[in-house]
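Thread: adenosine-5'-diphosphate complex, take 2
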Amino acid sequence: SMNSQLAAEKEQAEKSRNIKAEFLANMSHEIKTPISGVIGMSQMMLSQNPPSYVRENVLHILDSSKNLLAMVNNILYYSKIESNKYTRKEKFFLLRPFLESLFYTMKQTIPEDKSLTLCHDLSADLPLCIYSDALKLRQILINLISNAIKYTPRGTVTLHCTPTSEGLCFNVIDTGIGIKEEHLTTIFEVFEQVDTHYTKEHQGTGLGLAISQQLAQVLQGTITVTSTEGEGSCFSLTLPCRVEQKKTESPS
Ligand code: ADP
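Output below.
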């Protein structure tokens, strides 16, 4: 009958989705080992105080291989999400130290020759502790902040965090290239990148936002974006989560 044919087709589609996800996961895993080798070797060469012309080149190798590793990690992440291997692992953790450590990590990633300031603006009435999945929240914020840094040639990137009636709201605001209205929804789809001269020069995998949105769903949160082309963008993550104000709550 029509119904059983549909069911069979659905099952087949599900099967190939799983095969694809598994293939991506295995591939990525296999690729990570040699990349780690290249990174390790470059770091070793740098530690041997090579002449400056060698040093320059090795720094390039190190940079590129780190980018490659980040891409492969994204693909691995995405395939894991696709095969529904992600569940929430929630616990109470201190919010401010969490954000400050993230902020410190992201500061290191700004290229030295870029005149970009990373600021944070944490609301005074932030809860002391929140009950959430710290790793996933961190991954989402890293993706949003890296994009903001990547797509902002100069100016500022601000991480803003404030409690609202819907939950905690994290805004990542940049003064970058912005996004045309017609691209505001497609950028959350897999492998979708806005086709501009600037984005071509800063090739990524087109997975960051798709991953972030799926992770936000796992946390029952939402990501929205507002943007003006040529002026900048604001990506907002709203996270409904239990909060704890008591100072006695023990951290992680
Ligand atoms: P990519 O690896 O290409 O950065 P993402 O999924 O993270 O993939 O982003 C998809 C696309 O959305 C990017 O290619 C870029 O065109 C656009 N985009 C994302 N964040 C920003 C931003 N802060 N400013 C301008 N464009 C952005």
